[in-house]
Amino acid sequence: MNVSPVDQAVITQALIAAADEMGIKLIRSAHSPVVREAQDCSAAILDHQGRVVSQADLIPIQLGSVTHTFRACLEHHPLETLEDGDFLINNDPYSGGQHLPDIFLFSPIFLDGTLIGVTATVVHHIDLGGGAPGLNPDAGDVHEEGITFPPSRWSIDRDWNGGPFERLVRANVRMPEATIGDLNAQFAANAVGGERLKGMCRKFGTQTVFAAMDEMLSYSERRIRAAIAAAPDGTWRGEAWLDDDGVGNDPVPIRASVTISGDSIAVDFAGTAAQVPTNLNNPFASTASSAVACIKAVLTDPDIPFNEGAERAITVMALYGSLVNPRPPAPVRARLLPSYRVVNAVMNALAGAVPDRVIAPGFDTTTVSCLSHRNDDGYNIYLEIFGGGYGAGPDNDGCDAVDSMLSNCSNIPIEAMESDYPFFRVEDYSLRCDSGGRGRQRGGMGFQRIYRILDSNVTFATYGDRFRIGAEGMFGGGPGATAETFVERGGQRIRLRSKQRFPLSRGDRLVVRTGGGGGYGPAGDRDAGMIERDRRDGFASHP
Amino acid sequence: MRVGIEVGGTFTDLVAVDGESVRTAKVPSTPANPDEGAMHAIDAAGLDPGAIEELVHGSTVATNAVLERKGAVVCLFVTKGIRDVLLLQRHDKDAIYDLRYAKPEPVVRRRDVIEVDERIAADGTVIKRPDRAAVAGLVRGVLADGDYEAAALCFLHAYANPDHERLVAGVIRELAPSLPVTCSHDVTREFREYERASTTALAAYVQPVMAGYVSRFSAALAARGFAGRFSIMQSNGGRMPAEAMARNAISALFSGPAAGVVGAVRSVAGAGYRNLITLDMGGTSTDVALIADGRPELASMTRIDGLPVKTPVIDIVTVGAGGGSIAWTDDGGLLRTGPGSAGAVPGPACYRRGGERPTVTDAHLVRGTLRADGFLGGRMEVDRDAARRVYRPLARQLGLSLEEIADSVIRLAEVSIVRAIQQVSTERGLDPRDYVLVSFGGAGPLHAARVAEDLAIATVVVPPHAGVLSASGLLLSDHVHYRTRTRRLAVSEANMPDIRETVETLQAQARDYLAGLGIETGADFDRVLEMRYLGQAFEVPVSLAGPDLGTMPAAELVARFGEAHRRIFEFEKPHGDPVEVVSFRVGVKAPPPPMPALRRPPSAGATELRSTALTERGEALDAGLSTRANLGRVPAGGPLLVDDGSATVYVPPGWTAACDEHDNVILHRETGP
Predict the structure, then answer these.
(1) Which domain holds residue A208?
(2) Do A447 and B98 touch (CB under 8 A)?
(3) Can you spell out the DSSP letters for B199-227?
(4) Strand partners, B667
(5) Does A39 lie at the interface with B, CB-CB under 8 angstroms?
């Protein structure tokens, strides 16, 4: 069936708008600050065959997993068995998911008894049980990280709203009101997307919408393939290193070889380290999402709609049992750390193919800052995701103090935090001057956050990286500053590891510092006006 | 005589009302000195400034100061520890795959941000009181070092307790009496420090520019004998005396689009239309807004140049679809229209000013919905052959005829407008079918009917003088002042007295403020409570304009919130789930004297009907030609082009057009979509 160019454009815009609207309403009706302020969530619309056709531009790494988690659901519950009022859920890192806190929720949408598509949302939930509130850096397996919801089908009427599944969730989490509230926000956003999808089918006819969805996938695929075809053929290699595995002190390598051939790309992670006993393992879905996101960012224009069609031109291979394709039940909570080194390794390889399109490595690390407090009323858990400085580009300084590439979390305003978490106060939130790598273009700066602890029974939990190996500069640029975390207690400075739990005392000052991005080009070539501005504004004391 | 002068990007429009007579003028703007263009408009209309009793002015002075970064040198005082609040922003990106992402550039440099050792907690209690002597020393040093034109203050939790901001502002005023000082708690009393600091910094930044402009323009007017009242339009659709605006310039940031909305609302009110969607389409963009029951909705936040502004603005959505929007195909072969625009220079190809890219205006000439010999009532010459020429490559590429491609390009522009209208309607749980579409601006009436059709809207209204509607909006606007306050209160019977008292206090403050400026107000208050379920972070506005809060039980307030929540989110929690009020917004207004209808004398001549060929939606049509003056009360059927001097109204097949007794052109859809 042929769709006229005008109808195609209208339906394309409407589907993208509907996914955006789902994302906005998800954020606006959610309960936890990690969703409503930090916006750690995503939304997507799938067609009647379960293929992702449009996504809200929220968190790239989560979006990459929508396809994988839904396919795992379909293995147990094929499309033709789904009914109106069903929902499907999955957070299993070994069934297409990434880490347990990200719960994928799918609502099949029916019009006059026909399945016309599926709406999907994913939210980072604040606590799903496990060995410690919010985050358990000491987990030795995935079970110690929380409860797994395997790919499974439920009924809203029967199982939710006080039903057995809701009660199961409620019984296994530390902040049930927040978790149920956030899941309700997911249900509501899915319903909004469903209404929009039904409206489109009523207006244009279901078959026209289906055909337009097909074309959306082909369109994205065509544009990605055109961009790949414009790059030279060949094989290039890149590598990147994690500081350590969280226990020992040896760097952990991630290696990628990227082969461009015509209009497709193959990425192979042969040579990458074996899986590790701590939570730094990268489920395959995360590895694939990270590689695809990097290739898209480097090679293509930002306006290509990201959907399943965009992934057809890219093949990713990783050895089973390696860090980037671990065996269960390896813990995976900190999967974004290896995901970023996947990005670095792939970008490093692409630098050989298209040197003018890459940027220097950035801080490229997700630093989680989690403070939990327990009193007679139960738990209160704060969690925030920190980025750092971006790498500099050929003609721009790296962006300062911003979330890294695979994520896009906002900060939580100090004024919101202190209202929701009375057990600490923020004493400082500032740029780290001189943390950007020197160069003709300066790397972006990292930042610091200082918390004053106001009560007892507070525990800090974190994971991060680049405490030892800073972001390298490119084409003669200098490295970005490394990160550090410490506690000031009674005149003492207690240094913390990058992955650790640590009990705090009333009066402690907790200092979290993230690092900078690498510089680009020799520092001697930097523009005199920029040097003077950096000096006067205190961004950098020397070029 | 009362005069409204609206300075736009391209044209400066004037409407003058004297008794029953109405005069209008349209002259080119003078962006470097906007007051010159305003004076030219006065001269063009042949007005004597000495005879003007009341002058209402709208200008882009504040907006341009931000966009062109020509505001004041500002020093910003913040709580110790948050010096980088303007640079850190919200730590997110609005383009997730852009490797060379740059944040919006703040209007205050880092070197000009000063930390003050003070602290207040979230509940307003004082943790560290600033030491007055130390503050005085700090301020002296700052003033000695920098050549500052304005000062701004934003302290943590100042919305809960403004004492420290007041103390430090007092010290600055003492040491530098001529330096304008802006405190965050005066600009907006809402939480989230980045958004509040950004708004405060912007307020200080535009302040001296606006004050300078107002005093220069006032002096120029006075020199020519003007001794009347002078007021200025705000982003919230109300006006303020100029001398007060010079102290509160931030509230003028979006006055242009606001004036258009007010003009539309008031112009069609006489004909009884109270539920409207406005469509203001110009050369580069289209502004749309939704008005329920004659009251424009206010949004509590907007952005300028990427920077958040937390002051009430008329809730307008802008899309990059205008007459100058450029048609193109992307590298996936998809046809696109906009958001790139040929602007005024070089402009559409048909203007023959060097434009070589196909635009929406060119597409209208190609398909015949604009006629080369009737452009702007025949006052401007355009080249249809140039329009056809620039569309040939696109037509070849997509295998379509020239008319087909032109038609598609226009459809896509309309799709963007439809999308903008959905953002203000369906996305907020409102059904566009319950509204009439009011269309104005040079290009709006050409697209209005088809846009309405896509939204299943049955009626389109094109008010008289659609081209200068913003200027008449100035004269039709109320004096308005808003007060906001963040105060979290659970909705319970026990708290109802507190809720009522907060509203009443804000009402009294707003009323007293206008009274202090010599403006008496009645009892017409806008009361909006921003409410949410306990645990949510985003509020749903609940308007209490009608009912009497004095006797409302808590359960009723909860029920009203529940309705509002369901409209937006498609769900409502069971009654009994705790609900809280987070902030209060109260506005008071003083209406202007009535204005005579902008009506022209009925046409004496008989209807002269000619016809013209056009192509639309793949069909070759023979359309009638008419003018507003020639349209009668009896509906004429489409296809029809109505030439209105400054705009052309397109009446498609299936639609009728008539002129009502208020001189509005009314389009009706006869058939279903």
Answers:
(1) 5-222
(2) no
(3) HHHHHHHHHHHHHHHHHHHHHHHHHTT--
(4) B460, B657
(5) yes
ipTM: 0.94
Residue A282 lies in a domain: no
Closest CA to B439 of B425, B459, B413: B459
How many CB atoms neighbour CB B561 within 10 A? 23
Report yes or no on A295 lying in a domain.
no
Instruction: Give the C-alpha distances (Å, rounded to integers) separating B515 from B363, B479, B510, B550.
Output: 53, 11, 9, 24
Q: Cα distance from A177 to chain B (closest Cα, Å)?
A: 9
From A310, A219, A190, A191, select the one nearest A12 (Cα to Cα).
A219
> What is the per-residue pLDDT for A352?
95
- A74, A118 in Cβ contact below 8 A? no
Give, for B167, the enclosing helix (H) or strand (E).
helix B163-175
The domain tally of chain A equals: 2
* Residues A214 and A69 grouped into a single domain: yes
Which percentage of chain A shows pLDDT scores above 90?
A: 84
Angle, helices B255-269 vs B469-476, to 10°: value is 80
Contact A227 B331 (CB under 8 A): yes
What share of chain B in percent tops pLDDT 90?
49
- Residue B533 three-state SS: strand
Q: What's the mean pLDDT in B496-511? A: 92
pLDDT confidence of residue B604: 42
Q: What tens digit of pLDDT does each residue of B159-180 get?
A: 889 999 999 999 999 999 999 9
pLDDT above 70 for B602:
no
pLDDT at position B146 over 70: yes
- Average pLDDT (A125-150) is 95
- CA gap B367, B387 in Å, rounded: 10
Query: Which value, in Å, is the radius of gyration of the alpha carbons in chain B?
Result: 26
Looking at the complex, report in whole angstroms how far the Cα of residue B27 sits from the nearest Cα belonging to chain A.
Answer: 38
Cis peptide before B339 (omega within 30 of 0): yes
CA B160 to chain centre: 29
pLDDT band at residue B375, thresholds of 50, 70 and 90? low
- The C-alpha angle B259, B263, B269, rounded to 5 degrees, equals 145
Domain range B71-202, CATH class:
alpha beta
Q: Is A415 on the interface with B (CB under 8 A)?
A: yes
Contacts of B161 (CB under 8 A, 6+ apart): B120, B124, B125, B126
Q: Which two tokens stand for residue B502?
A: 């907060």
User: Domains of chain B: which residue ranges?
Assistant: 1-47, 71-202, 325-414, 417-465+619-669, 479-590
B-chain residue closest to A25, CA distance: B569
Q: What do you get for the CA distance between the two ends of chain A, in Å?
A: 61
**Which of A275, A309, A315 has its CA nearest to residue A291?**
A315
Contact assignment for A422 to B110 by CB distance below 8 Å: no
Q: What is the pLDDT of residue B249?
A: 86
And the tokens for A108? Answer: 């099949």
Question: Residue A422 domain-assigned?
Answer: yes
**Distance between CA atoms of residues B252 and B61, nearest Å:** 9
Spatial contact of B197 and B79, defined as CB atoms under 8 Å apart: no
Nearest by CB to A402, which of B103, B110, B422?
B103
pTM for the model stands at 0.88
The pLDDT assigned to B603 comes to 46
The domain defined by B479-590 folds into Dna Ligase; domain 1 (3.30.1490)
Q: Which pLDDT value is given to residue B9?
A: 66
Residue B282 main-chain phi, psi, to 5 deg = -115, -150
Instruction: List, for residues A295-321, the tens digit of each pLDDT value.
Output: 999 998 777 877 888 889 999 999 999
Nearest CA in chain B to A412: B90
| pLDDT, tens digit (0-9, with 9 covering 90-100), for B241-287 | 888 887 788 888 888 889 999 999 988 998 999 999 999 987 778 89
A314 located within any domain: no
